[in-house]
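Input protein
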Amino acid sequence: MFIVKQGMLQVTADDGRALATLSDGSYFGEISLLNVGKNGNRRTANVRSVGYSDLFCLRKEDLLHALNDYPEMREVLKEAARQKLARDAKPQQDEENTENERRISFTNSVELADTLGKRLEDLEKLVLTLAQEIKTTNKSVVSLQKQLTKVYPNSKDSSSSSSDSDS
């Protein structure tokens, strides 16, 4: 276990994510010495000095001997270690949640794209139907104009002659 006498250290996870910054009076290494967490006595993070640092080193045997004399401190250190592990695990859980949200968002986007594609196909069919209806209506209008021209043959001439006389 190490105790920071002077200086600043950065604690990082194996993936490089910054977990904490330690300074004078902070300590680390107790998690592995006390077998706290699911990794047992394995290290849980990396610690790197930011500039010059001076540390005290407490060997495992010396720590365990001191904790035998002060058993309540063993529980205090274990609880502090559990809280560190929980705090350090939270960003990873947040990252996992974010990844799950991205997957859900992607799935929703794919479903939305499929739905929009189907609606676009439906809209294209409606436009084609409307175009066919317009074509049919135009044919009906032309047919009606021809019939009206037969019934009223002079009406077309009189409208064109009145526009001729205006010029």
Q: What stands out?
A: The CA atoms of residues 116 and 122 lie 10 Å apart.
